[in-house]
Amino acid sequence: MALGTMLKAPLLLLGLLTEGLAQLAIPASVPRGFWALPENLTVVEGASVELRCGVSTPGSAVQWAKDGLLLGPDPRIPGFPRYRLEGDPARGEFHLHIEACDLSDDAEYECQVGRSEMGPELVSPRVILSVLVPPKLLYLTPEAGTMVTWVAGQEYVVSCLSGDAKPAPDITILLSGQTISDISANMNEGSQQKLFTVEATARVTPQSSDNGQLLVCEASSPALEAPIKASFTVNVLFPPGPPVIEWPGLDEGHVRAGQSLELPCVAQGGNPLATLQWLKNSQPASTVWGTEHTQAVARSVLVMTVRPEDHGARLSCEAHNSVSAGTQERSIILMSSLSVPAVPPSAITILGSASQVENKNVTLSCVSKSSRPRVLLRWWLGWRQLLPMEETIMDGLHGGYISMSNLTFLARREDNGLTLTCEAFSEAFTKETFKKSLTLNIKYPAQKLWIEGAPEGQKLRAGTRVRLVCLAIRGNPEPSLTWYKDSRTVTESRLPQEPRRMQLGNVEKSGSIFSRELVLVTGPSDNQAKFMCKAGQLISLLQPPLPVPPTNVTILANASTLRPGDALNLTCISVSSNPPVNLSWDKEGERLEGLAAPPRRAPFKGSATARSVLLQVSSRDHGQRVTCRAHSAELRETVSSFYRLNVLYRPEFLGEQVLVVTAVEQGEALLPVSVSANPAPEAFNWTFRGYRLSPAGGPRHRILSSGALHLWNVTRADDGLYQLHCQNSQGTSEALLRLDVHYAPTIRALQDPTEVNVGGSVDIVCTVDANPILPGMFSWERLGEDEEDQSLDDMAKISKGPTGRLRIHQAKLAQAGAYQCIVDNGVAPPARGLVRLVVRFAPQVEHPTPLTKVAAAGDSTSSATLHCRARGVPNIVFTWTKNGVPLDLQDPRYTEHTYHQGGVHSSLLTIANVSAAQDYALFTCTATNPLGSDQANIQFVSISRPDPPSGLKVVSLTPHSVELEWKPGFDGGLPQRFYIRYEALGTPGFHYMDVLPPQATTFTLTGLQPSTRYKVWLLASNALGDSGLADKGTQLPITTPGGKEEPEDQLPIEPPAGPSGLPLLPVLLGLGGLLLLSNASCVGGVLWQRRLRRLAEGISGKTEAESEDRVRNEYEESQWTGEQDTRSSTVSTTEAEPYYRSLRDFSPQLPPTQEEVSYSQGFTGEDEDMAFPGHLYDEVERTYLLSGAWGPLYDEVQMLGRWDRTPDFLYLRGHLV
């Protein structure tokens, strides 16, 4: 005990000194200002930037301002998603980081430090963040990427416009890689503030060397790593160079008659390349030229033979293109020599026709062009020479001669195809021969004509494919081979709807034989027909016999208009067939008996047959087919034809007519019509509830062409019978159709709330309006998060028609809460209705202990509040008694406040100016409602020493430590703390250990020895003393288990060295300890007396104004501690209650009552979302767990552990224990 006192005294002195120093106003020595200031920065759009701000006073509120707009101290900077504060605030780092900068970030910024205990407010110098915006595009005129055609030497204007940029870009225009100097630029405002555009205009005079080069516009900016460019290709037009004639040899212009001359003319350059032409004596001689684009050359070659008359002729070559100012020309004068050489004839011509009929004369003439000297003419037929009838010589040009020879001979078939040649010859032209030839065409007829057809003995029949071939031998011209059928020419022309029965081939030649094919598909008209082939005057004939099947059947009726009950006579007639056919009747597959007529002769050498049938028709026969079949047994072929019955009858509704149509409300409905009538119905008239629907349609209906009634946006009012009148020229019919409109359920009646006494029975009734009404469409749910609470197994579910019931027998508190009636008849959406089940029960006052204590100083200046809480439904009325006598609430010292929260009710009795003589008594709180009453006793006592704690037990035990747990006792109305006294059995002396934090209820005692028996006491103390050691619940024997390892925090104990006996050192230590203990006792006594004096002054020294405030003010804040059971409150002193607030107009904010709870969320069984009036109730709230008898209904108003997060804990005047 002495050792513990010695340790406590220095600690007490140190604590007093620390508390005193803390209360002194010591000026701060930390330097004020910035250790890092922001600087002007420049950033390119899209990049990130950071403005630095280092504050020398960490803990201050720092924020940035942008153009005077404060961004706030939140590091995430709401409203600016790209902004955030970076750095360590503890080190004073508040750097503004901006992601993906854009033009809106171009502004002035400053770092501002708010006023704090460490220093005044500070503002950094303003800095400018300049955001550079590069130009995105260049707009070039003429358009970039194109080819622009200019004429060399002419001036053109080029403009280049940049997109929005900051700063304005520099624009340069280049042609062929050279910068254009004649350029002007204008800077304009862009699409936004701070943006600029630049338009540069250049005057360009292209030259021929610029052809095919690029004109480039470049824009450079500090925001660009490399300039952006736009360009187009220049196509420069310029004239070609002068033409050049390349004369062969040295003597230009000197030629001789008869010389073959080739003169090239070349023109260099030009865009486009030059167009060349040759002139002879100003007359066009040649307009043919070629170009070589790779060498940019145009070339034309004049080829001519020099004639004597060409002496002195002028040859000129002209060159020009589309941009030439004029035509460029190069000329040469021809100088011919005096010698006259021999001139052969330039051509031989044969006059007359080489085509003639055999055995007739052929007359021809051969004429030569002018020659010098004259030529002789001779004739050749094949290799045989013919003698001419006459020869003539005539004068020609330039001293020449023209020769002519006439020939007549007899045309023979053998000469056909031979070559007839006229040949000119002369001694002067021994090395040259001049000829002209033609081929004789001798006409003669074919020698033989015949037809090849089907093999003999083959039996033909109608429909057979037959191939006939006409053949002829020789003939010039080639025979045409024409086919005839019965003297009519066979052609392939036919109408599109006719079948292709004949196919006529072309004339083909094989050697000297000519052939033409006729392919036909035989028909009745081919029976014994004459087929003839003609080639000129030759004719060949073929007449094959042909069996003909029936090809067509005709049906005749005695009446065209039929009505039910009429008789119809049908006659079937088969046209020509060979041999005759058999006729039969059937109606839609049902065989009919008919009357046959004898066969008679028919066209194409065939016979015709007829058969009749008599029918009695009805409306069902309308549209049916009566079929006549003509069958040839010999040919095994059948031809059919049918007659469709047309029976006129009034409308008849078919068996598949729908009589009931189902639709969904707000949807569409189609009332179909399945009716048969002939003619078709003329009108469909619909009637609903006596009103005729307009045939033209309405806002929500339309009658379709089929007669069906189409309705949309259907409502339940459209449900009912619809009458249809269907009419045509034969009569009228009626039908009734029912429209059944299904609609989603709607809850019409749901009693909310539904009340029942505990143990009683009740039905929760849910009545709906719905269609259809289904047996199982009602379902029930109980709202709440606990699945066990949601079970409805103990409740009966009853459904009858549009009413559903949830029947509850022997109602329990646990069944109270929100229920949901769900009705689903298959039409969305299901109906949902909420209803609250209120279970009424008698009051139940909380009884945490047999007797509850509240302590306060009875000095007539303090006040206290007694809290009584009960549960019950319906609402509870509270009454108070003192020592069994009803409390007079008219007494101004007593004030009662009553609060109702669902089934939880509270009464707060505030006692002002507490008097020990009048108020230290037993107060009784009685809670009453129509179902009963209950009460609780509260003992109001004076402040005192704390009660001993209880329930001390070991939580865990190790060789060197033990973890203890206990329950606090009544604190006597003052703050209490705990400390532990323990001893090792067999070892003299006690050890003391303070429990920290002071209000803790668990503590780990360390420094123990293994395998050692200890005895441990737990004591509570407050300003008035300790709880004492008399209570056995505060002491505990323990034995530590054995262990080989020593605890890390325990130093090894060394045995005392030296001889036995009374050592000097222990004696000195003992004397020093006694002296220290004496001093500590003195200091402790002085401090205790001073504390009691301050306590008395705080109780009795209040001014009149302070007393008045205490009466009309209540507590500012309180804290609920759900982890401890203090069962106490502090005395009302100046130190314990520094904050007040007025209760004159104060009304606590209660959560909604049980009747007001939103049942869409249900009762969760937990108190997380409740907002109980903690400010008013915390000072008298209980921390013990409530009995399970309260049930889950009222769990939402539990206040255990509810307000344990309030940072400032204040002890209040009274406390319920």
TrEMBL record:
It is found in: Cell membrane. SUPFAM superfamilies: Fibronectin type III, Immunoglobulin. Residues 948-1043 form the Fibronectin type-III domain. One of its GO terms (molecular function) is cell adhesion molecule binding. It holds the Pfam family Ig_3. It comes from the Eukaryota. Residues 1118-1135 have a biased composition (Polar residues). GO terms for cellular component: cell projection; cell-cell junction; focal adhesion; plasma membrane. Belongs to the immunoglobulin superfamily. PANTHER family: NEPHRIN. This is Nephrin. It comes from Macaca nemestrina (Pig-tailed macaque). The gene is NPHS1.
